Predict the structure.
Amino acid sequence: MAHGADAKPVDALNQAEAKAELARLAEEISAHDVLYHQRDAPRVADGEYDRARRRNAAIESRFPALVRADSPSARIGAAPASGFAKVRHSVPMLSLDNAFNAEDVMEFVDRLRRFLNLGAEATVEAMAEAKIDGVSISLRYEAGRFTMGATRGDGTTGENVTANLKTLDDIPEGLGGTGWPQVLEVRGEVYMRKSEFLALNTRQLEVGAKPFANPRNAAAGSLRQLDAAITASRPLAFFAYGWGEISAPLGETLAAARDRLRSWGFTLTDSELCAGAEQMIAYHGRLESRRAGLDYDIDGVVYKVNRLDWVERLGFVSRSPRWAIAHKFAAERAETVIEKIDIQVGRTGTLTPVAHLTPVTVGGVVVSRATLHNQDEIKRKDIRVGDHVVIQRAGDVIPQVLEVIQAARPKDSRPFEFPDHCPICASLAVREEGEVATRCTGGWICPAQAVQRLKHFVSRNAFDIDGLGGKHIEAFWRDELIASPADIFCLHERKGEILERGGWGDKSVENLIAAIEARRSIPLDRFIYALGIHQVGEATAKLLARIYHTLDHWRNSMDMARDRESEAYAELTAIDGIGPSMADDILGFFAEPHNREILDRLSQALTIEEASTPASLQTPLSGKTVVFTGTLISMGRMEAKARAEALGAKVASSVSARTDFLVAGEKAGSKAKKAAELGVTVLSEDEWRELAGL
Ligand code: IVH
């Protein structure tokens, strides 16, 4: 957007210029509204967008006769969500694991049984609830009064949208009934009824505004209004399904807790208490057949363990609870034609074939691309350019090609030839034995990989640099302002060059430099994750940080581990969760000179914080290495591992001289023998429970 310092002041515009400028602004703002509200993919910073709207309003107030019928200021609900205060959730708002079929659900119930160490015949009661396709919200009540409401955001920090939420009839200002805890955070979903959504879109069209793509986007857009009066004019509703922080328990079961929430004035999701997987799956089937007739969008069923003491024991794995799972509905399908097959190159060099399709509507969304995954997938389904295909789309997942309609295949079609060179940098593309992916060997010299790696480096869960989005990375890379991660930390030396670029002003450059400076110190786990090593996600990065503590120690250990006979290699692969293939990727990363140079430069430019067990977490198990063997009676292996890790221990899969404790259950075999030989302390199950404070 070009209305920064270089745009002509409003006072200096003549009538013709003002008219042209209003036309330009109307088009520009509307384009950004679409990106923002309908695709949730804004291309400009909120501040810039606000400036455009303010300029539009200022010109209109000077030239009232020129106000256009499609003026952005006349349109309801176009202001973006800037200026909302950030809120840190006292209990994080997590996401759910997915189940896609009956087997996944049975496996979920089996997993619960194993974790809780219940017999194979034990019944696990679960609440099956409609999964609402809306916007996740947390509502805080103190002494029965609604004090604050926030969006989910990244799960840890959301936006304060209290004023807007107060306009919803379903959200009580004061709790009804009796017996509510002093602090109560109600979690649920803000949504828009399908009937209301259609009526709203009709109104949008009448005033010349863009319609919303679906009820969820309409709900999200309506909630993120700076002017609560606009939210009030939108028909939003709320379903409660759970809670965050509470100062007193809500009951012994989820069923009881739901009854209490209802008695305090909340509307709860459609639900049914089920005894076991069969009943859960049956509810899923019944709800799916009612789906089209419901006046709100749902995208599946959530199953939740009913006993809250079990919920407590089950806890969480990284970002999702062990005690719940989302069982999605079958994806929607449509028929279309493959116009062309493109190859995309990802961050780790993987060549992904993408089908360009004749656009087709699937479940209310226009689809024009589908992933073809890899070479084998194309071969297996014999997918060719020109083919008529059935595609399917499930939730936010990228659409997939299900099958080729053979009868409609053009006579002259030929099998697709998968490239053996990278289409971006022309480096050799290779497929390692046993792998499905073909990968470009260009590394940092491949523009596609370099840009994706840089984007990953600054992404939210890595360096999280405010104001340095994907588009900036692409532009800076193209213009050679950054070629490697460490260059980001030298951008302050190139302020002048950034200022010369369109769209940057003194203030925005200063903000960018400040945001970069704020990340000059970073925890080791985030740093490891930011490196973008193949297979090393957030959970593995945390594990590595906890085990190696400092970058230097990790790096030295990895250098030594290149010798597969070394103790360092044995230590790396003994970490529970790191197998030989991941170890190969990690060691491969350190073997590449370019990566070593990146590490050298980054460790000079940054302070990488040492990972340590927090003082509040000093337990008899802090920093100890524990190995479990044999069968435990009181808990499953997974629960034992989770407990040990929660108390600061590392859990290894094999016994070595570095093992502190071997917990030996029934039928402990060779590991117990080896522990005895090495003089490692062997604990019985009771001794382990005592040490863990159970
Ligand atoms: S329970 C720890 N129950 O689905 C997370 N979530 O995919 C517990 N959602 O972010 C979530 N209906 O916004 C739960 N009946 C329901 C739900 C539901 C919709 C959303 C929720 C969550 C997302 C997870």
